[in-house]
Write the structure tokens for this entry.
Amino acid sequence: MLANLQRHLPARNSTLRDDTVSESVRYGLIGCGMMGQEHLRNIALLPGASVTRIFEPDDNMAQASLALAPVAQRALGLAEVVLADDVDCLVITSPNFRHAEQLREIARLRALPVLLEKPACTALHDVASLAELGRAYPAPIWVAMEYRYMPPVVRLAEEVYSQVNIGPMRMLAIREHRFPFLVKVGDWNRFNQYTGGTLVEKCCHFFDLMRHLTRSEPVRVFASASVAHNHLDEYYADGIPDILDNAFVILDFADGQRASLDLCMFAEGSRYQEEISVVGPKGKVECFVPGPGRFWPENLGPAPVPRLVLSPRNPKGPRELEVPVDPVALAAGDHNGSTLYQHQRFNAVVRGLGTVEVSLHDGLAAVVMGMAAQESARTGQAIDLTQGCYNLGVLLGENSSITSIGL
Ligand SMILES: NC(=O)c1ccc[n+]([C@@H]2O[C@H](COP(=O)([O-])OP(=O)(O)OC[C@H]3O[C@@H](n4cnc5c(N)ncnc54)[C@H](O)[C@@H]3O)[C@@H](O)[C@H]2O)c1
């Protein structure tokens, strides 16, 4: 059974080529909290790479970061990092609401290659101007979308694109059942005004995966969501947190595929954190991805291993394949090794090899989908992404040929 499945699937991580050579690339980090430190651990695995400057305003986080990047100097501000002559590229890992202003300042100071953490921005009025910035920026900008680079998701994408076992994709369902938002420096992730809203902050990853897997553009979105349970007993200067903790989102795509997202953020008891299913006329392929290994209780034994399940219609007979992640990549972060694979490719781009795979355009498209979903949940109305305030083509500055499809 397994051999049968393996015959149809390319070798493990085959699309995660390792272009690393010992050519030097020097990184400057803007913001270095939890995710910034995951980037530091992964940059440390790249031959020839070093982190030379870090701008991190919080003393504890700065100390923890410098311990991970001993040759780095702490900078007093963003400009000091951007203008340093020992910095070849930047990684922006500041809170979401800083991303747009920092990208603008970098563009004004010195156009270095940038790896920008998602989401690219938190306000609709920033989308069009950032899209324009992206078109004019003379160096690469790559938006960090780690889910694309998780080995089980890479295998799923290979299966979807090949169409060998399922035929052309018609339906895509993504379920994330996970733990509540963690505590962040300054509690910025407790309020929509700083995150962009849960469907932007957290779910832009999944909207990006939808565009990545369908290779099509979304035309309509409908969402139902609420703050049902999480953080309601917490009080801050800004009040009680207003971030959504559960949602169903449905999207139609221009090429006729439909996709759904099922998000629950009080469901960390699940064995798998993400379950993705793709169905075509010949069969179904599913992908099961565990959450961070550090949250898996020791008394339950080893953390779950990612899995792919292929279920043809004829002849029937589901086939399963484990897709283990390289232990070194796995240990360097919370994202099933994907941060390392993404860094290998970004590093190659900085060295003039390879091309940007997740552009600012892609990052902004995912943000607009999340914002439209937030708006749909607020109003109870479906949002058309081909006209009005959420017209994706207009916001992203394209002569979009996307037209609405019939229901
Ligand atoms: N791709 C992923 O899977 C993933 C996962 C987690 C976080 N993220 C993203 O990474 C970013 C950081 O998230 P985090 O979890 O590390 O949060 P965090 O709060 O742990 O870290 C953010 C850091 O930025 C610092 N900071 C605050 N204001 C700043 C400024 N103006 N300039 C520079 N730094 C500033 C804070 O002191 C803090 O240390 C967010 O955009 C988040 O959405 C992405």
Q: What stands out?
A: The pocket of nicotinamide-adenine-dinucleotide is lined by residues 30-36, 55-58, 61, 93-96, 98, 117-118, 144, 146, 184-185, 201, 335 (CB under 6 Å).
